[in-house]
Every structure is written in C-alpha cells, then in structure tokens.
Automatic annotation (TrEMBL):
It comes from Hydnum rufescens UP504. This is Glycosyl hydrolase family 63 C-terminal domain-containing protein. Residues 1-30, 42-73 are annotated as: Disordered. Residues 46-73 have a biased composition (Polar residues). Pfam families: Glyco_hydro_63, MGH1-like_GH. PANTHER family: GLYCOSYL HYDROLASE FAMILY 63 C-TERMINAL DOMAIN-CONTAINING PROTEIN, MANNOSYL-OLIGOSACCHARIDE GLUCOSIDASE. Residues 544-650 form the Mannosylglycerate hydrolase MGH1-like glycoside hydrolase domain. GO terms for molecular function: Glc3Man9GlcNAc2 oligosaccharide glucosidase activity.
Amino acid sequence: MVKISALTPEIFMESNPDHEPTHHLSPSLSIAMPPKRKALLYRLPSPNTSPRSHTSFGSSLSEEVDGTQSEDAGTLDLASSQLSAEHHRLEQDRQKIRPWKRWGPYLSERQWATVREDYSADGDAWTHFPHDHARSRAYRWGEDGIGGFSDDQGRLCWSLALWNEKDPILKERLFGVTGHEGNHGEDVKELYYYLDSTPTHSYMKFLYKYPQSRFPYESLVDESSARDRNVAEFELLDTGIFDEDRYWDVIIEYAKDADDPEDISIRITAFNRGPDPANLHLIPQLTFGNTWSWPLNPPKRPEVRESSPGVITAEHSTLGRMHIHCLSSPFPVDADKQTVCASDNDEIAPELLFTENDTNHGRLHDGQNQLPYVKDAFHDHIIPSHRLSLGTELLTSLQPPVSFVNPDKTGTKSAAHYTFKNIPGNGGCAVVRLKMTRKTLEEDPTINDEEVFDATVEARRNEADEFYETISHAVGTADLHNIGRQALGGMLWSKQFYQFIQEQWIKGDPAQPPPPEARKNIRNQGWRHLHIADVLSMPDKWEYPFFAAWDSAFHCIPLAMVDPEFAKNQLMLFTRDWYMKADGEIPAYEWNFSDVNPPVHAWATFRVYKIERQIRGVGDITFLKVMFLKLMINFTWWVNRKDRDGKNVFEGGFLGLDNIGAFNRSEPLPNGGVLRQADGTAWMAFYCLNMLNMALELAKFDPAYEDIASKFFEHFIAIADAMTYDGGNGESSLWNEKEGFYFDAIQWSTGHPQQIPVRSLVGLIPLYATLTLEPSVIDRLPDFKRRLERFLNTRPEVSQRNMTLDGHGDRILLALASKERLTRILEKMLDETEFLSDYGIRSLSKYHERNPFSMEVNGENFGVQYWPGDSRSGMFGGNSNWRGPIWLATNFLLIESLQRFHQYYGDGFMIECPTGSGDLMNLANVAKEIQHRIISIFIAANGGRPSNGGNAKMDRDPHFRDHILFHEFFHGDDGRGLGASHQTGWTGLVAYHIIQSADPRPTPRTPRSFASHYFHELIEDEHEPELDETRRLRPAYSALRDISPDAL
C-alpha cells in the first residue's frame, strides 16, 4: 500500500454537514487534490513562473484576434507592468503577441436537431436529426460533446465520454427532450455546472453528475410527453436516480502553461458519491470535424494516430501537429483511509482507440459504409449489447468476431479508454491526466511528471483566484462572490464555434443526395450572404446552441467586465458584411434570421465602450466610430421597414418577447389591421437616444458628428410626440390617461386605433428612453447648440410636450415619460400586487391573475392571463414565457433607466417603494432595491436558494448547494429557475448587479455636473488621455459601481 496525502476536506464536507459557504469554497478551490503514485509534497510555483520552458506556439497569429485593433484602447508595456497573470495574458492576446484564446470551450453541447443540420422537406429539425442518430451520424456543421474544448475554428475537438457499465450507449453527449417531446418545449435532462473559467481559458472547471444506474432515457421522454403545459417539467432529479447518492461527480479541469497557450493540461477527477464501490470508464475523445464527406473532390483527411505508447498525434493541414499524452493513472483512492489500493508499480494504462468520424450507414439505414470504421465504433467496442451483426441481430459476446476499431491505430476520431474497477464509495476517486501540446516527450521530459502537471493546474487556479479577486474584492459575502464568479465563468464557458454558410446549406452538398426542393422555401432563403465561422457567445449551448442577436448584446455587458476585447468583437461581428444585410438588417437567430429582435446593439456598444473606459481608464474610440457608422445603416433599415406609414410609430413584430401579447406578433393579425406597438416604438426612441449619446461622444473628436447628433435628437422628438400625444387624422396616443400606462393598439383599416389594455412590459419599456443633456456639454458643441435652439424656437409646442427644461442648472431631460407619467407608471411597477415581485419586476402585472384580458376576433378568443411560471401556451414553442416571470435582461434596462432618471431629478423625485409602504426612496435607491431583489434569486438563505425551487437536494446536499444554475427566466412569485437551465447568457447580468451594488453607500451620489459624460478634464484635448499608471497596474473594477452619466 502506498500512502498519499490527505484529500482536501472541503470537497467532501462530511465532517461539517451544516457547512455554510466560505471564501475557500470559491469555484476554483472546491476540488480535492487528485491521487498521485508518490506521496511527494511540493511547493506551488508563483503565478508568473512556469515549470516549463517557453516554446513557440507554432502557427500564425493573424487568425487569432478578430476585430479592430485600436491604439485608442491603450497599449500596455508588458515588460514593466505589474498586471495579474491573467490580465497579462489578456493584454498579450489583444496585442497579438500570443494567441491565448486559440483554444477554449468552443465545442457545442448539442449539434443534433439544430437548423444547421436539418435537410428535411418540412423544416422539422427535431425529427430530422434526433439524439438517437447523433452517435452514428456525421455532423455537417460542427461537433458536440461533454465539457468540450476545441480550437477557435472547430477543427480538432476534445470531449469526455463515460460509461457506468449499465447504460446501453456511451455517455458522450448531453441528453434532453426535443421541442415535440417536452411539455414546455426542448429541455436538457442532465446535471452539469460551469464552475470556473478565466477569459483566456487559462484555467477552466466543469462538473458533470453521472448516474451509476442506467440513464433513464425512455422514462424522461415518456413522462415529459405525457405531461401537459399546466404541469412542471419532469427533470432528471425527479426520476429518483440520484437517491442514495449513487452517482459520480466528474470534474474536468483545463490549465494552460504559463508561457505557452498551446500546452494544455487536462485533469479529470471522478468522485464516487454513492455508498458502495462501483466501476467507471472514462473515455476522453479527440476528434476532427468532418470536412471530407461533402465536396465531390474531398480534401485530404486529417489524421489521428498512435505515435508512441500512450500518445495520440493529430495532423491537420492548417492546424499543424498536436500531441495528446495520455498519462497512466494511479489506482483509485479511498476517501476515508486515504490510501492507494495497489502496489507501487501498479497503474492503469489507457487503451488507445481509433476510428473514422464517418456516418454508420449500416446502423442507420442498412446501407454500405465506405470504410469499416465509423463514428459509433467506440460504443460497439466497449459495450457488447450495442453491437449489431448483419441486419439487427445483437452480438453480445465479450470478444467480437470483428474489430470495430482500427487495429492500425489511425483514423479521424480517437479515444483513450481508462477502466477503473471498484472505486470506493463515500468519496473515493479516480483521476486521469492528459497533456495536449505541440511537444513530444523528448522535447519536454516533464510531460509525464505528475507533480509538475498538478503544479501547473494549481498555479492557473491560483491565478484565476487572483483575477476574480480584483473584480469582486468589495463584494460582501463569500456566497455573493461565488454566485458572481460562477455567472462569469458560465458566460465564458458558453462560447461556441458556430459555422453556417447559408448558400452551401440551402443548396446541399455535391457529394450528398440533393435536399428536397421544398426545403428551399421553408426558412432563411433571403440570407444567402451569410458566411459565419466564428466563436460566438451562445444563450445556452444545449437549449439554444445558436446566436440570438439581442441576447448577444446583453451578453457583452458582463463579458466586458472580464474581457472588453471579446465583447467589442462580438458586437462588431453582427455588423460585418457576412452577417448584416446590405440594407442594414441584422440576423436574429437560425430558426428565422428575419425575426425582429429589439434594437439594443447601440445601447450595448456604448455601454461596452464606457465599461472598458471605466476599467482601463481609456476608451476605444475607433471601435465606437466603426460601430456608430454600421448602426446608422441598421437604424435606417428600422425606419424604412418598421415605420411603413412614416408616422414614427413602429410595428416591430416579434421583438423578442414571445407570448407577451394576445396575438402572435410575428404574424399578421387575425382580422387585418396593424399592431401599433408601444414597445416597438419605445425601442426606437431608445435607439435614437443611444445614437445621440454616441454622436455627442464622437463630436469631441470630430465636429461633423454634431450634425448627426442633431438628426437623432429631432428623430427622438418625432417618435416621442407620435407615441404619447394624439394627432389628427384618426391618430391617437399609445398612452392611456385613465389607466396611467402605455398600451399597444390595433389600427383597423377604418376608424380610430383600439388600445389593448394589458399591463405588461410593453408599457414599462418606454421608460428605457431617457437621457439628460448638460448645458456645459451643449455650450461646447456650437453646431449642435445652434440646431437645438432653432428647433426650440421653431417648434415650441412639440418641444414643450417632449422635453423637460426646468432641471437644476437648465439641464434638459429627453424622455418619453414626463414626470407625471413616470410617477403613474412607477406606482404600478413598484406595487407588489402588480409588477414588483420579491425577485424583481414581473413581465406581466399580477393584476391579470384576477382580471384576465380577452377579446374575440372572428369568433376566436384571444387572451392574456398572469402565469408566473412556465408558459401554458404553445406560442413560440412554449419554452419561454413573458406573461409573469422575471427576466434579467429587461430588468437590467429598467434599473439603468431609473439610474438615468435619478441623474436628472436627484432627490427632487421621491416615490413609495413598495407602493403603499410609506417608504420614500429616490430613484437610485429604487434601482438598488430592484437589484437586491434580483440578486436574492441566487442567494442561499433560509435553507435554500429561491432559484432551486425548494429542491431539498440542491439546497442542502453539500455536493450540490454551492453550485448555481442560471436559468433563462424566473418564477414571478417564488423565484424558481425556469426555461433553459444554463442561460448564463443574459442571466449572467447578475454578476454586474453584484459588483455594482457592492457600493456601501446607501444613496448613490448625484454629480453636480454631467460634463464628464462627454468630456475629460482637458476638454480642449483632441485625443483620449494616456492610460494612467493606476489603471495600468490594476484595472479599476470599483468604477463599475459608478452610476453617473460618465458611466451610463
């Protein structure tokens, strides 16, 4: 028996069943030290040193960092700076010195049943490529896997497969029910967590909970299909498969070497949480994406091969040569005795397996395979019950009569098969170590040194701690720190290489049978210019493994906190020629690129610009200029396409809010007429003000932008007047004076519009459009001032209706809602019997629980009722609901709107919060109150987190309770998580709230002057100031708590 050092106690926590989270339980520190064959204690290297010598990373840097490189963003002297190790890597990547982001978590979690893989006649992606085909059928547009990792072009993909000796197939991808099978639409039926990631992916951590019993594929589908929309979703925990803790906690960690972004240590640690010993197969896979099955003259295949015992070598024409060294593993440890159950010389060596990433035509449709070794070969090789002979007869013998894997040890798909027997229960664990590198063992003898390997992982983890400490050092509790870190880690894990070339997709591939002719007219035929092959931020890599335009804009806010360069590049991509149409239309999402999402890119652009300036002390003015010019084209598209009568009232359509109205807003109204949308029009007013804001910022450097600023000022006034005041010729306002609220209205072919009195976000979105103009700003922009004065003099009535001119010091407020209307709207919004929940602002007023709205059109009833949880309607698939739940994206904009109103009114505007409580607050404190309610969704208090929905295991089990899921939306009454369970996309905004609300001051200050919003101290300077030394040494994340105009 060989003794090993004691496992870190916090991963087990048996000694403290009532454990409360503490700082040492941050996501990067909650893993036990995996077993090694020698009980050698070692000292961790410092964050800026490496156990390896530096070598070149071996390929061109030109393909690494997309987007505009701007001197305006500031260039640090890396040799003399004292940045943290991770900030140093970010700066190296930004300056194109080293490609730290070439490798990352860019592998999708679901490629099957996506629009990209759908070649059906009817556009039914769920049925055309089901989960049952995924293991046997080659993908055309990407790959998928569990806890995966790839290069930034999706050429070489790493992922983990597992087998518990009970399942009929390897667990090599996440399972879920389809849109047809789920009672609330598609839904992943797995338990996994993104625990940590740095922005360069120098350190990453992923947790997958794998049942020891047979995975209940059939019962999950059957029960989900049997339930109606009035019942909650049937989840994996509901099956009882985790009872008695009979499952594995499988933790995957990635760590890049300190000075080489293509030396990557991968450590897999599997803990047996059950009471009894159990067997486990860990099967890391290395696969080349299939690029050879589609053209008539296929390119030379890349190759993976066994180059020496335990080493897989991958060769690719553009990626070059990579090796993955599959180290032999020590025998599992017993968590109680902390001993290795083997002699000194015993070890577990992997069996290297090779096949082709080609479709198994024989299994799928009794066809003929071009090569004998196919995509699902590892299932056949490892699981006897999976094997088929001719036809469908099972071959269950342990020794198959044929080899399912290539005995020559070569192919395009490979695996290292580790088999662990009798891993002790109650916390026993097994570990696998892999090293991906361009170096051979001869070039780097330390590759097989476990101590050096683990030192690298621990060093990167320590550096991740250091990086996040700079961001959240002022956060008050360990639990809040943990929530924020997992939110940001989840956002970084949600990057995915997304490939879609529309012209090739719609025509089909020359080497494949032509797709049905009817397919060409099902969807997206007007987007032939799309040619996307980029790493993008996904809403949810399983439920929504495709970009969504307005989601992406929100993603960029928290992403800018940790990686402004990536956030800027994401925004710029959507305005590139190969995304945006020539007329300015931005693609929405792959199910329908022409659906209309809210125009939030201008807001996100200016916020990202401001966030970077707050953190780094200097803004990227080139980025702002480029985005402004592209957004001008998009703005023109909106005006030309969505205001078809030229009356400045917009018909938007879908606008991202799914089922918020009585009608499907993506389709024509059932009895003709046009829906005049309060939110669509308010979004355009919001768009105008953000363009005005950017133009004033750019006017500091170029007076020509003063003229453009005047254009957006006047356009805003026109929209505000059309939306809120009655005009002639049968026009009427979208404001209802009696109700004190904004409503949509149907404009029939004859007569006055008919308002639809539904109290929803539609009536709150007009609050988004608000901006304060400071006299000192106007005075320093003479052309803009002259045009402003001319407008006031020539259109006094319109000006008086839509501008507030009585502010302190002659400030001007531009807002759709006057002070009186703002008061009336907030009385409803802050009423706990209407919009204000304990967990944020509801998307529909609780008033409609008692007073449902309905109207009859052509004998058909259309209605809206308050549903605080999942949708009870099939509109938009039923997997999202805007009739009561809380959405963080729209709440975020409401909070910022209140902060901007506070900039103008200060303590001169006080309102009851909650309504009827007698407690008066200024608007900044109202905003902070809503932030605190949103954050409370995730906080562990009173025995659990509201987001867990009262699930006892998730709330109290020591192996669950510190892990957070970030759902798509949240129950309007109890805060439980709903919809997609890993939508750290816009739900990751909670990290921004945590940082901003960490300000200890009870009342944010109202600045005396707002001039700094547009000008730095040296107003006459034509250029941005130099990056100051304080920001050079440590980015100023505390500046994110600023809500002055300079920040917003």
